[in-house]
């Protein structure tokens, strides 16, 4: 009796894995201009950049970088977290591949990232920052239970926090 064929890559479950060189090369193609770069990575990453240098350019103390993919398949998203305060994981540099947008995968990516942060650090709360005019991201974060922290927000950026996982 033949064994069943392996699941097709597009049917494999979504998960997080450490980024590889090919993932950084793909990520470099998702960032097409200076405005996208600063909105995604902040002011320290200057555009243009060399994708091969992204592991060093995106390094933060205690940063954990991941890509979302179906098994070993191509990256569909990139994200990071680090612990800023005990029990609080800061989510950052969250981006989906252009072809993955508009499919609900942003919610999946954030959920996987929070689960990993909670599992690996014991985080019970999460923070992030988002541009006020990034309606798609704001909708995701609000759906996930994040709330604006007015005292930490400014005229361009909302600071948001979620208690519990």
Number of strands: 7
Order of helices and strands: EHHHEEEHEHEE
Distance N to C terminus: 45 Å
Mean pLDDT over the full residue set: 93
Structure overview:
The radius of gyration is 16 Å and the shape is globular. The protein contains 5 helices and 7 strands. It has 165 residues and is an alpha+beta fold. The N and C termini lie far apart (45 Å). A 7-stranded mixed beta sheet has the order 1-2-3-4-5-7-6, sandwiched between helices. The model is unreliable at 1-7 (pLDDT under 50). The chain is 29% helix and 27% strand. The protein has helices at 21-30, 34-41, 54-57, 105-121, 135-143; strands at residues 14-17, 64-70, 77-85, 88-96, 125-131, 147-148, 157-163.
For this entry, give a set of tags.
single chain, 165 residues, alpha+beta, 5 helices
SSE blueprint and pairings:
Blueprint: E1 14-17, H1 21-30, H2 34-41, H3 54-57, E2 64-70, E3 77-85, E4 88-96, H4 105-121, E5 125-131, H5 135-143, E6 147-148, E7 157-163
Parallel strand pairs: 4-5
Antiparallel strand pairs: 1-2, 2-3, 3-4, 5-7, 6-7
